[in-house]
Task: structure prediction
Amino acid sequence: MDRLQILILSQDSNLALQDLGIVGYHFRSDSARALELLERRHFDGIFLTAMTWLALREVLTKIRTGPSNRLSPVIAILNGMTELRAIQNCGANFNVCKPVSSGTIKAQLNQALDAMQREHRRYFRYTVSLPLFVGAEKDDLTAARLINVSAEGLAVRLSRSLKLEGAASLRFDLPSIEPYRMEAKGEVAWADAEGQIGIKLSHMSEEARRRYGE
Result:
């Protein structure tokens, strides 16, 4: 299994997920520091526990409206059914009510891990360096450089003279024994001052999507 990036927000310093087979997680006991971290980096899964329901609802709302973890699976460990009703529409994917045992959490974790793995594959970027043609119109493409790919998008380094926003068409060859010409459409999701842009893929043929995912 790929190494998952998991954040635990809890005021219980004794909470340890090593017993559940989770390693390499990030622990925060302060909501403000946790939210600052969630703003600037992505996590494959998030555990929330040992919090008041008001704080829990605030954190969930900010996670689901933030830039990095809107789709990340969240497990909330709650004090009872009252808290469950209070946060049920706030975006937690998995809820566990106290008292909990290691077995109870493991049962939820088995379901959550599948979701976390899917999120990891969706978000994970693979570094590449391939020539690519990109532009606003299919018949007016400019040479650029493909620098990383993920399941749902890719990052491109543009020439200094090219500015691109909104809809984008792109074309590049997938390297293999028999190279395959990829043609796709997408939307520019972000751009930086260094001439790099991120494109969220929105349309390609079924054959192209199958080969892109391999």
About this structure: Helices lie at 31-40, 53-65, 81-87, 102-123, 206-213. The longest helix spans residues 102-123.
